[in-house]
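Human:
Take a look at this sequence-structure pair and walk me through the tokens.
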Amino acid sequence: MLSIVVPTLDAGAVLEGTLAILTEADISFEVIVADGGSRDETLAIAHRAGARVVTCEQGRGRQLDTGARAAQGEWLLFLHADTHLSAGWSEAVARFIDMPANRQRCAVFRFALDDNGRMARLLTQAVAWRFRVFALPYGDQGLLMARAFYSDIGGFRPLPLMEDVDMVRRLGRRRLTMLDAVAVTSAARYRRDGWLLRPLRNLCCLGLYFIGVPPRLIGRLYS
């Protein structure tokens, strides 16, 4: 069985759509919503959708690991609350899972935004280039791996930020691959913060992380 872990914090505006699309899967799965203290309708939406809810201290790395520890499936898919998987996602996941060699690998989805504008297309191309050149996907592309492999590499660390980059760096290029399916993430943050300013801020945060600035300090800039 596949366990889909979704970290949430006041995600009521986007969670329902994300969970609804998952019901179209052709594989056996469970959904675990790992909540960090939502005060909106997030938990009610999760319960209505039949998801299991676990709660813990706020912080995406901690929430993702809490969800993974509660999972019952042999495979784990970590998915952001504002990311919708495209049609055919479960077939792509099943093909990956069926290959024994992939028990020591991690797969991600192709990145896209729910916006057809020029800036959204440019950002999508930039993300594809980043993966191709640096093998550096972010959490909004989803992360799929065997539960045993997740444990072997130490799982998500309790970081408030950059938990996905930390995980990907431990995986390394040779253990990463891309699925033939798309994860569509909400562009609301880019429309709100600016199509140039938000990516530049993200790049600045990434640079600070790579030179050793603690994630808790980077989080102040990010927020």
